[in-house]
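User: Fold this one for me? It's Cohesin subunit SA.
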Amino acid sequence: MIPESSAAAASRSSDRNANSQVGTTSAGAVSHSEDESGNENRRKSVRRRKRACSVSENVKHKRARASGSRVRKAQDKHAKEKQVEAVTLFEVITMGKSAIEAVIDDWIEAYGADRDSSLLDLISFFIQCCGCKGVVTAEMCHNKEDKDVKSKMVEELDEGAGLQYKRFLAFPWILTVTWPMDADCADYPLAQSGPSGRWFHSELCDFVSVLVARCQHSVLFDSYLMGSLISLLTELSNSFMRAFRHTCTLAAVKLLSSLLTVALSLSVGVENSQKLYDVQRTKTARQKSSQQLERIQKKISELQEKKAEVESMMDILVKGVFLKRYRDILPDIRSVCMEELGLWMKLYSSAFLNDSYLKYMGWMMHDKVPDVRLKCVLALQGLFGDPVLLPKLDLFTSRFKNRLVSMVLDKDNEVAVQTMKLLVLISRATDEVLTAEDYKQLLQVVFASHRPLAATAGEMLYSRILSAVTPTSDDQDEGNEEEQRQQILKALLQFYQESELHKHVVYLVDSLWDCGASLLKDWPTLTAALLQSSPGFTPAEQAVIVEILVASVRQAAEGPALVGRSGTKKVMSSREKKIQADDCLNLTEHLFSVLPKLLSKFSCTGDAVASLMRIPQYFHSDSQEAKNSQLVSSLMTEMAAVLDLHSSPAVLEAAARTYLSLCGDGAAWSSAARASRDALVQRWVDELTGLLGESLRGGCFSAEEEKIRQIVTTLKKLKAFHNCHDLGRWSVFDLLSPLLMDNSSQGGAPPELLEEALQCMSFAMLWSLCSSSETLTCKEKAVAQRLQLRLFCERSHRCLSHCDHGVRTQAFLGVCDVLMAHSYQLQVWDPTCFGPLLYTPSPKLQRALLSFVSLHVFVVPDCDNQSRVSECSEVERLEDLHRRRNLLAAYCKLIVHGVLEMSAAAELYPHYMKLYSDFGDIIKETIYRTRQIDKIESARTLVLCLQQLFMQLKREQDSGGRAHSGVQTFTCIKELARRFALTFGDLVKFRECLVMIHRHGIEFVFQEFNQTPDNATPPYLSYLTILSEFSNKLLKPDKKTVLSYLQKHTAEHIIDLREDRWQPLIYYRASLLAVAEAEDAVSYVSSDRRPYHSRSPVSKQKLEGYKSPSQVRLTDPVSKVNKPSIGQSSQVILGNMDPFHVPPELPRKSHNIASAVFSESDDGSVDVEL
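Assistant: Here's what I get for Cohesin subunit SA.
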């Protein structure tokens, strides 16, 4: 770095005197440690309270009094009274803006006395800000036009020494910076992450602006300071080193911005002086003073010269820094350039706001980094927000309008939002830029998933709607205002009907809520539009108005939280909560009296009445209308009348939820709502009792079509209300249980009736189980509940074999839900009270549930099914997949919660790879959940799954017939084992599980195997290849243990590992040994058993000693032989096998084992001699 040591400071004065007398070149060099520069960059603001101890080498003691007085002024503002002797320019950056001003004033005073050394201090400051950790050498130069000097201005690498060199001219100094080659990293102050980097960025910018502001009336125009400073920043901004380039580019563009402020002040001075000169010239000859005119003219000339000089400096910086760095490889540099360019255009439009500079802004809107694009858009917002600058932007908007419209769909949400805001400014400024096609594309963004983007598009839409409506005069009456609101509403309806993009009005209302809440909260206008008798709106428009009304009510009561829309503010402020409460009161006061009229008018329209039935859910219980019994009675009457007319699921679900909300405790209308609900349920139960009594005679169901329709309609109403309300006192379960009797041979109930009855009975059982803590007060009630549970499961078991698919599905879901509720009932049971009795599903029911999952979930489409599916729409396919995923999830929950044995999951895991895209996440979650409950039993389930698949494939191969499509190939089983092994993350945690998998696998292969001449190898020997997929998950001690266990099972058999039939054993042992060279693994395992006819007496004795696992220490290393590896080739061979063939062994490569001599040492290690 630039010299900082006291010795260098002391010697500089004499060197400077010698330079003035002799005219030779002086030089000095010093190195700065990495710790000094790094620590200085990371010091906290605590240093503002400390007294600076280091003395600038270029600030002499003769200026100490002036320096101390100025710094004390800055410290008095911070309540400090300690005297600061002197600080370096780099240290002052940690002391705040007031200290920066004081020290810069001291530096200007020092510059007036000795400008060369002061300039060297300033150069040292900028190089220190770059975080340079190298050596800087400064030499004096007296002729900057010397060709020899210019030829030495290079930046090169010395790979031998590992150093980089940069030599450049900052007249009158020639600087040479030397730094390590590996220093070009992100470890410099400006690139630090977190608050420290942002703080340094701000302080550096403040330093540059204060420096120019303090120098503009003194040394800024001395043709020395700015020339050297601009030369320094230009040279370093072109460096290969990222730290120099980034820091000096920022300093250069901030310097240009500060010079631009100076130029503006000079322009103002010229303008004021010119006005004064014109005033003086208009005076009479007696009043006119020629001397004063000359002084004013001279001042104008001086100001114009200074302005021209400043503009020349700005032009040099633009050409030397901006034009080279605006497309730098570093995104931060490009962002800084674009941000400052927007500031220059806005503040100094006469020089910068032209097409020559606007083109850079347009080009960089195509940058691949979002932050650069964001800076361009923000800069353009400042330009388009000023009406004075709009005429100069016509060519730019015509050239880059399409790019701006496309950036609304930018992948970065913030860029898209700011671009939409920019287009809103453009649309408000002029109507000629954006065409109708552009508006059609932009306004569709109101349905976007990102709420800030959709809200900005809603602002554009609302402004367009308002501009389309003719503004009314000031003396308008209420009738004209109401007409204007209806015109706005019609324009909104027209947009929604023409868009045809989205069917959910709630998202449109959410997008317009921030800007158009005055319209959307105007519930009197909306309800008046629905209740008016004149044909102002068509039925289709009224249906949309109903949706808008309900969506606005929901938005006012619950806020903007919508499914599928991100970017929503999750925490509401106290002010927002107050507004929400007031809105709830207002809508309750108005809609409580109007809603019965709306229900009466739209009672025959199913979709409209289903939406209107949801409005009472958002009523405020503290409103005055809640105490009006006449209004409450009117509302309940109209709701009951709607339920008499409709039986659609949407209307019934909305009504059931609304009654649930109205029947809650704490509201004045709760008693009337409960009475109305009970009357409805009692009437439906009485109707159903009479209809079933006539249809069920002699244990056989028989009814006419009209009566069946009435029964189904009544069951739908009871089902919808039983889903939300406890109807246990009406004994719905006992009423419907005769429908599920096994009388299909005599003619059972229709499928649609059975489906509704099953779902209604399952709701009755769920309510009974959930309220058992209150209802089970004696043993008799517990026994009755258990008998009812058993009865439901038995009847549902019979329905699992019904001919109708809907009945089977509903029976399956009902059993799963009820068994889950019973499991939860047992978990939350309080032992101090009388608890429920345990019920375990029968084995037949468990097999029936598993069979249902296998037949209806894991469906493998054949050719006919594929042709039929191709004709169906994508929506139907996704709905069917969603239904099957729900069935699988219901069954998996029974396994996870212990209702079914964990081994039942072994029938699900084979489909983990085959149907991974459809059900892989559910099966994987089941594996993890069962492992958390019992990791050993979960591992046994994985082993059981693999063994069952292997045995199925083996039986299929032994039968010699055609392979069944449901049997997985050997490669698929091996891949499934690999995926199972990947689920074991923490090897220490699942150490015992992995050892158990290997132990069971070895027992599966070798247990009950009797070797005979005809049966030389175990029938399941190839399973070891599958088992080897778990070897890499074993810890090293466990590998040795498993290897010893394997040797224990193989010691009783005659094994010739040179035969191909034993290749699976070789492969498995190699995986346990974890030897990279397979040849060494083959040689090692070959030392265990040799053919009896080829043994020499010596080798026989050694090998017999190696037989016993107790005599061999497997922990000792094995000497390796550099032979070709067969690990990858084995994998390739396995992949190319016949998919329906179980390989009895892996094919082996020919190895020259005879040329190797094996010997075993006393410690159990094996030595190999070639």
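One thing worth pointing out: The two ends are 62 Å apart (CA to CA).
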